[in-house]
Amino acid sequence: MSDPKDFSASMESDFRKTPVRVAFVTRRTSPAVKFRDEDYVMTFPETLIRAAVAVQVLVVFLVWLALLWNAPLEQLADPMHTPNPAKAPWYFLGLQELLHYFPPVVAGVLVPGLVVTALVVIPYFNINIEADGIFSKDRRRRLAICWSVIPALLVFLIAFDVYVAVPATLLIAALLFVAQRTPADAPKGFRSWLASKPLSFWIMTWFLMELMVLTGVGTFFRGPGWSWVLPWRG
Question: Is the whole model's pTM more than 0.70, yes or no?
Fold first, then answer.
């Protein structure tokens, strides 16, 4: 060959009939392909078997709990005697606690509707897809937004007498303060772990904490007429 860089090989013009490919490897190139070897490869039989085993273990655990403890069922329903208070199942007590503070349209329609809408819509937005720390970019703008939203949220909760939701909000605000005061070159630890968490982590953590607080208050601290009672006083 006159020109070593000009390689060509052909056997037929129609590649669909004769799909032949010829590769020339020179001394300066390497045919090695870079790849990353994974420890676990989830394929059809193994994944299905693991899921089935996990379900069976959970079923055995629940049956074991049912044999040791009776379900907390009350007496038969009596139309002449309505329990006071009439509490919903535990997974709805957070919503029932909201009904104590807000009008039924807000607590029963708007809040659940906004939550469901957010769960449907948010995955379609390109929000912090790199999962950077909340204060790693646009630090000043994000700090200004953060320290204006949190006081407004606290004022809103206090205005509607939702004092049970204030401690969780203050705890999130304190952790955010620690995160924004953590330098970028801080050694690995709790502070650096907080600083690396994105906005979605903080919103979801606040939501779960408020849900647990409202559910716990509705379960243990509400008595007749939905009044505040202390459970350890009988």
Answer: no
Q: Whole-angstrom Cα distance, residue 94 to residue 219?
A: 9
Q: Which residue has the tokens 């204030």?
A: 166
Give tens-digit pLDDT for 66-83. 999 887 777 787 888 888
Residues paired with 78 in a beta bridge: 81
Length of the chain: 234
3-state secondary structure 85-145: CCCCCHHHHHHHHHHHHCCHHHHHHHHHHHHHHHHHHHHHCCCCCCCCCCCCCCHHHHHHH
In the structure encoding, which two tokens stand for residue 77, read together? 């329903």
Confidence label for 166 from pLDDT (cuts 50, 70 and 90) = very high
Where in the chain are the domains? Answer: 90-233
Phi, psi torsion values for 222, nearest 5 degrees: -120, 125
**Mean pLDDT, to the nearest integer, of 18-31?**
60
